[in-house]
Amino acid sequence: MSLSLAIGCPKHTEVLEYRDPQQLDLSEGYAMGGCNHMCHIEGEPPLPCGHFCPLKCHGNDHSADSGFRCQQPCSRSCPKGHPCQYACNECERLSPEGSDCLPCKVEIEHVYPCGHKSTMLCGDSQAAPPCPFPCGKVMECGHICQLQCGHEGTCISTYECPVEVRVTCTACNKVHVGPCHTERTHGPEGTCPHPCVARLPCGHMCTGVCGTCHKDGHQECVVEVQYKHPDCGHTQTMPCGESQADPECTAVCGKDKGCGHTCTKPCGHRGPCAPPGHECFEAVEVKCSRCGGDFSSTCTNVS
Fold first, then answer.
1. Which end of the chain is less crowded, N or C, counting CB atoms within 10 A of the terminal residue's CB?
2. Which of 288, 240, 280, 249 shows the shortest CA–CA distance to 263?
3. Where is the NF-X1-type domain (predicted)?
4. According to the model, what pLDDT value does residue 226 have?
5. pTM: predicted TM-score of the whole model, two decimal places
């Protein structure tokens, strides 16, 4: 009596009978759990992705849960008509419904709504990226706007034009160089860096900066003058501008306190230099009435 082993494939109808164990070779084809035929059978519908299984017969089904992944190239195209460059299973994992592919990797020349062009991946162009180029429009000042293309507002009101321009100040009639935006905003008189040439009411020349004086008025005269206080007659050296405000005298009073010594309070102090019966602590040399010797004392003690 001879023994044999019959092996049949659940998918294909062929049954193989083996009598000798050496006839059974699982090294090729059968290792996937099926027979040695191709998985796809003539007339069988394609997989959900539209492809036919290219593998040898295998034991598991074609569901994602079984670990099956279609490795054939995706058969779809991007919105611009480029064939998808990914494997079918990559796009299927991205979109189980099979409606989307991964971003297209074909390089294209993208034209922005403004007319600028740049080379980018087709998939990146689908998101309508903002134009990365400078605006490039010629502004009213005649210079080129360097803001990013598509900026808000008008160029001249948004962009602080840094181009150096030469302008003539109408106040001092001198030429200076400054940023175009600053000169437009403040005018050449408001930005002039040259010394002011105006003569102040006091008769001295202004020592301020032309542009600053034009915007904020002339600065106080700093020329030093000898000012005589009308009330006390003291003379002091001070800036001319300060002398216009009738300043208080800071000199020492110097009037006699009634004891022969002078008042050391600031000039213009209120009240008498010293009240009646005041104590004066000025040092004096006196002669002793009894022995005739000289000694030092204070003015108050002597009086």
1. N
2. 280
3. 49-72, 114-133, 141-163, 259-282
4. 92
5. 0.42
- Detail the DSSP E strand segments found in the chain: 5-8, 15-18, 33-38, 56-58, 107-111, 117-121, 164-168, 175-179, 224-228, 235-239, 283-287, 294-298
CA torsion 259→260→262→263, rounded to 10°? 10
> What does the alpha-carbon distance between residue 89 and residue 283 come to, in Å, rounded to a whole number?
112
Q: The domain containing residue 114 runs over which residues?
A: 88-158
Q: Is residue 240 part of a domain?
A: no
**What is the structure's pLDDT at 2?**
61
Cα distances (angstroms) measured from residue 262 to each of 100, 130, 203, 231, 258: 105, 85, 39, 18, 8
79 within domain boundaries = no
DSSP annotation of 77 reads: B
The proportion of the chain whose per-residue pLDDT surpasses 90, expressed as a percent, equals 7
Ranges of the chain whose pLDDT falls below 50? 1, 98
CA distance 268 to 213: 35
Domain count, the chain: 2
User: Which pLDDT belongs to residue 97?
Assistant: 53
pLDDT at 225: 92
Q: What confidence score (pLDDT) does residue 64 get?
A: 67
Tell which of 14, 34, 66 closes a domain: 66
In a domain, residue 153? The reply is: yes
- Between CA 202 and CA 302 the distance in angstroms is 53
CA 196 to CA 35: how far, in whole Å? 103
- Alpha-helix runs per DSSP H in the chain: 88-94, 122-125, 155-158, 180-191, 210-216, 240-243, 299-302
What is the CA 124 to chain-centroid distance, rounded? 27
Q: Torsions phi, psi of 211, nearest 5?
A: -65, -40
